[in-house]
Each structure stands twice: as C-alpha cells, then as structure tokens.
C-alpha cells in the first residue's frame, strides 16, 4: 500500500496515545504516510480533505460515518493540598462554594457540569463558579495540581496523577460526564484499505488503554443526550 492518510485528532488523545499508535502503524506500513493534525476545533472533513478523524462527544446526524470505539469517563478532582485548606465537598451542591476551574470545550457549556445522583438514573447540569477557564484541559490539570481549585477532567488525562497521589478524586459516583470516542470519516461506499487498517490499529491501541478511560463496564453508565444543532463535535 502507498499514499497519504490525512487525519485530525483531539489534542489530549493525540498526546496520550495516538501519536505513538500512528507511528507504530507507519512502521508496519513504511510505504504509507500519515499527516496527523492535533487540534481542538471543528473540522469540516470534506472541505479540508481529512480522511479520518478521532472525535469525542455526541455524534449528531450527518453525512459522516462514526464508528464507536468506547466511552471516556470524566472525574472531579483536586489536589491533597487543596483539601488541607478547604472542606471536602460531600454533595454536588457543596461545589457551589468552591473555586471550580472549567474547561471551555464542553457540550453542556463551560460552567455547566454534568452530574448524577448515586443510585439514581438521569443526568442533570450543575452551574459551578470559578476564577479560571481554559480551552486546554492540560492547563486546567496543572492549575488543579497546584492547589488552585477543583476541576472536572477526562479520567485518562489524570490517571497517573491519581495513582501517584498528586490528585484526589472527590464526589466519586456524582460525576455524570461520559463521552463516546469515535473514528469518523466521510461517507463512502468503499473505504480505502489503508484507512480501514489504520482505524483497526487505532481501536486496538485504545483498547490497551481502556482502564485509563473507564472504571466501570461499558453500557452501565447513563448517557447525556442533547438535541443536535447541525454538524457539531466536541472534544476532550
């Protein structure tokens, strides 16, 4: 096989595992070239000539094909140092009296956190307050590690921080944000073999890292649904 595959991936996934995964794929197929763009913005795959995109969020109806990979769970975290000087939240409403650092790229809105009540079905939105928001989740992570507040972030991004004790998960069971991860490509009757093989390779890579994304069986977590507004995608 020869040729070039142009792909777009979200920044966190690209840095966490896709850069290595795609490099491995290129080593397996030395006659192929992959141009990978890491970006947290809407990309019109057809207009910009993108063969494949990895997307996280709700997939609205469109002319694109979205192949599910699995779900990505988010968690509410803070640093141990923050808890030394602030009371630990025991309920979702307690968050209203804390400095909540927010991530701009959220389907529900920057300051609206998706919550659930343990033991009950359904997801609701809680509007939090804080003095810092950013369009880069890693920037929020650094601020939280520094003890500057509480944040809701992708579990995969802070997995090692939780294991090392740099961060502590709070309100476990109350966070209601779970987003699907998809391989997305323009509709075609015959998907090129090189693209199909890359998708399979990427899915295999994600499966190896599944514990970083989830801590419960697939399909057992309530999903938040929002009416699609045209062709919109959201990233982690």
TrEMBL record:
Pfam families given in the database record: LysR_substrate
GO MF term set: DNA-binding transcription factor activity; sequence-specific DNA binding
Record GO biological process: DNA-templated transcription
Domain named LysR substrate-binding: residues: 2-202
Domain of life (superkingdom): Bacteria
Entry keyword set: DNA-binding, Transcription, Transcription regulation
Family classification: Belongs to the LysR transcriptional regulatory family.
Descriptive protein name: D-malate degradation protein R
Source species of the chain: Serratia marcescens
Gene: dmlR_15
